Amino acid sequence: MASAKDSAPELLITDSRLNRSYAIPIHPGGYVEATAFAGVKDTSGEGLMLFDEGSRNTACIKSAVSHLNAATGELQYRQYPIQDLFGNYGFAENVHLLVFGSLPNADQKKTLDRTLAQSMLTYIDASKVIQSFARTAPMMTMIMGGLSACNALEPHFIPVHEDRDIYGDAESVDDHVIRTLAALAVVISAAYCHKQSLPLQKPRENFSFMDNMLFMMNFISKETGLPIPEQLRTIGSTTNIPATIQQVKNRKRRLYGFGHRIYRAVDPRATLLKQFLQDRAKEGVPMSPYMQVALELERIVETDTFFTSRKLKANTDLYTVLAYESIGIPEELVFPFICISRTVGFLAHWKEQMAKLTLPVQLLLLRRGDRNKFTSGHRYSGRPNFEFEDYTR
């Protein structure tokens, strides 16, 4: 018989309704299976449900894409700390890592770049839809219209159109990942060209993903209107920071670029971007005057008790636009470029979720007069659960 020391850890609970005790296994990683509580039943035979509004303490999937430590500010993609990836690997390498699970070798990278380029060529005709927009239209509306056009070009790749699903079909999921990134690159490039009255260049198969985006947009580095983060633009200079900080303390304005829903330490992405900007300055690249505003804001937030008591730290938004500015990206392209980078992570998580169909449950709240519509406590296998809670009191 195994000793108590050797036995697996368990969560011991007592249900006072029937005075019964239950032992629920605690798995490595510190979690219990929510379905285990279905065995905790009342006199009607209904198992216990768990309610977690907003999924604040409920994991819905076992993921290997990323991990962060909110307390220390450590961020890891797959098995690599973000510090090991930043500046050492390009877009295609990071796509391969996040979506396919490993950094590619030279042949894999070449294949990925070529596959993305070939998919881009498929969606060039979507630019005709974008050209129907007024040039003054917001770029994101053009992008949304362009993505719909890309779908229309290949309806046979739309699962519902073909009366099929892609859950558990890894090959189809991977194909959709590639097509989504390619379509997004084309419509962003087409939208920019339309707004600038430039011709959209066709991508080349021997170009990398980012090279093709810049090529399609006729991108040329020159001194034009550089992007300025709106908050830093409003503050103007470091001499206006004290008044701005006082307005924040008086709750008359918000301070963007600080605080995070998860991180309680400095966002490691902000640290890397700040270092990138400082390195660029050392190389002689002219820095935006708003860089000093950002640095001074961060210094105050790190030392003023009003902010330290609230555990507010810099997040990646503080320096992102400045980083794009330093490499000559026009202001109206900053958000679309951010969309491209974040879409890779979204798709990596989406790929994991496609392994199994997810059907979340719900608690249905009904007034007393509506109770005759459903049978209280009735459950549908594989469908949302219906429960009743009296909130008329």
Q: Kindly name the structural category.
A: mainly alpha
Shape: globular
Spans of 5+ residues with little confidence (pLDDT < 50)? 220-228, 371-393
CATH superfamily of the largest domain: Citrate Synthase, domain 1
What is the first-to-last residue Cα distance? Answer: 53 Å
Compute the number of helices. 14
Per CATH, the class of the largest domain reads Mainly Alpha
Instruction: Quote the beta fraction.
Output: 5-15%
Largest sheet: 3 strands, antiparallel
- Secondary-structure element order, as H and E? EEEEEHHHHHHHHHHHHHH
Quick one: how many beta strands? 5
Overall number of structural domains: 4
What percent of the residues sit in helical stretches (DSSP H or I)? Answer: 40-55%
Radius of gyration: 26 Å
Q: What integer is the average pLDDT? A: 82
| Topology-level CATH name of the largest domain | Citrate Synthase, domain 1
User: Any idea what the CATH architecture of the largest domain is?
Assistant: Orthogonal Bundle
Biggest sheet strand line-up: 3-4-5
GO molecular function: acyltransferase activity, acyl groups converted into alkyl on transfer
Protein name: Citrate synthase
Keywords: Transferase
Organism: Penicillium chermesinum
